[in-house]
Here is the input.
Amino acid sequence: VVFADLGAPAFALKARVQLLRDLGSAAAPFNAFLIAQGLETLSLRIERHVSNAQRVAEYLAGHDDVISVNYAGLPSSPWYERGRKLAPRGTGAVLSFELAGGVEAGKSFVNALRLHSHV
Here is the structure.
């Protein structure tokens, strides 16, 4: 939309559209309540995510069918020292790994995954 072509209401439209673009719409009251509830346990959940990622990375690094593991929390990582310096409480919960056996091994791995929940 070219606001100059809209005439007199151009500024009002620009202000409204730009505000929605920059800030998003207002959250519904119930959604805001749920977000506030989730914030109470956020630090604990992140701590557990990081701890679990570290354990998974260590397990994968020692597995014969895994070629490499990319996780800054492993001493073998080129980012290990930087991760310890910048994130002393843990380097995050995201990791990647490469399986031996190529695409077929990857397909077999994905097809064998199961979701586990303990509530």
User: Anything to note?
Assistant: The domain at 49-119 is CATH 3.90.1150.10 (Aspartate Aminotransferase, domain 1). The first strand starts at residue 66 and ends at 70. The two ends are 50 Å apart (CA to CA).
